[in-house]
Amino acid sequence: MSNPVILYLPLLVHSDVAVQRQATTILLTHYGNRALTYLRRLLDDPELADQARLALKNIGEISGLRVELRPFRGVYVRCLGDFQVFIDSRMIKPDEWGQSEGGKAGGRKVQGMFAYLVHCGVEGATRSEIAEAVWGGTASASSFARTLTALRQVLQQCGGEELAASLLYTDRQRCALNPDLYQSDADLLERTFDLATRTANTQGVEAALSFYQYVLDLYDGPYMEGVVGAQEWAAERGARLLSHVVLAGERLASTALHNGQVEQCLQYCQRVLAHEPRAVGVLSLLLRAGHRLGLPAEIQRAYQRYLSATGINPRRKRDDPVVKLYRELSESVEDRGSNGG
Prior knowledge:
Blueprint: H1 9-12, H2 17-31, H3 34-40, H4 49-63, E1 75-78, E2 84-87, E3 90-91, H5 107-120, E4 125-126, H6 127-135, H7 141-159, H8 161-167, E5 168-170, E6 174-177, E7 182-184, H9 185-203, H10 205-218, H11 230-233, H12 235-258, H13 262-273, H14 280-293, H15 296-310, H16 321-340
Parallel strand pairs: 1-7
Antiparallel strand pairs: 1-2, 2-3, 4-6, 5-6
Helix pairs in contact: 2-4, 5-6, 5-7, 7-8, 9-10, 9-12, 10-12, 12-13, 12-14, 13-14, 14-15, 14-16
């Protein structure tokens, strides 16, 4: 589904305020403030605009968040999770990448070229670098030209000739996107994480929690997932982005546990471990939170995912910090059971 919040619309505008409140809680817990962006993208949809506007108002009243009721504007590139490009509120559909006139090049290569240029940022890339990234080697001049033309036509059809001409720059040697005309979730995540780090270092972790929260909210899956050729050129940045998310989640969960917000701690840990089950610090916090809440099934599930992801044999590696903590918590439960008996 191109916009996941559509399923929540009937609940967000329900006549029963309790239903609205429950839907708002679920939506914000799962998507964070990105839910508001998803709803704003529906404000240009003639069939859903009225519901989306009412849903935004209700969320604002229930949550206290500042809600913007204007349609979403600008070029936004979603690099985390399924790769998507939005021009204003309109998403470029998967089949549109390969449907432009003269666009005989495969749609995945057209999309891959755009994604790689987003990855390269302001410097752009040479034609040979793009060929290596998208084709996995060299590309004939005619094949490269067809793909580049198809990309330009996709941008023209979805955003107009002026946008296409301003956004995509090409010459005989290099291609690049104008960084002033688009933003991406990956760039936002990196800038927000840097701000969180500086704030935590100068003012303490508590002062940086809202920034760490935004980092966690922005992450919706692996960097450039599903983009042709990205397994090679996106891996390093993808690992760095995930490490930012793990640290942000750990800071949030640790603070919540310290403040006695054990369920909140558990939720933060679950969100991070869904993306990185090997995160030792986060998993340790989940084990402690699950132990306090009396959730052995959740503890066991997370622990088994960790063992499977790392390939650790707990009988042979008893000094592993997660294995050690799991055994200690299990033994304390057994001791309580014995004393209670």
